[in-house]
Design a protein that fits this description.
Strand content: over 45%
Number of domains: 1
Order of helices and strands: EEEEEEE
Helix content: under 10%
Largest sheet: 4 strands, antiparallel
Low-confidence stretches: none
Distance between the termini: 13 Å
Mean pLDDT: 97
Radius of gyration: 14 Å
Amino acid sequence: MLVGTWKCKVIGYHGATQGIQKIKVGGDVILTVDKYAAVPTANKISTSSGFAIGSSGVKAVQVICDGKNPSSGGYKVPFQEIVFYRTA
């Protein structure tokens, strides 16, 4: 990734057995998504606020489960696509 301000979009399924998903870049959490939904929803888009990349280079990207909504029946954190795009 190049130096600058970036955003992240995650496209995925939300449903009754989904958990809380965190996206990390370079060890920093850039997006937290509660993927629980009483009514299943496919192709839902979640967008981060802007985050800064201070030095150009390869960055580790992690997708983790960080617990679940009390109403959820599980810890799944599926996604179809993750898109990073530079805004400045």
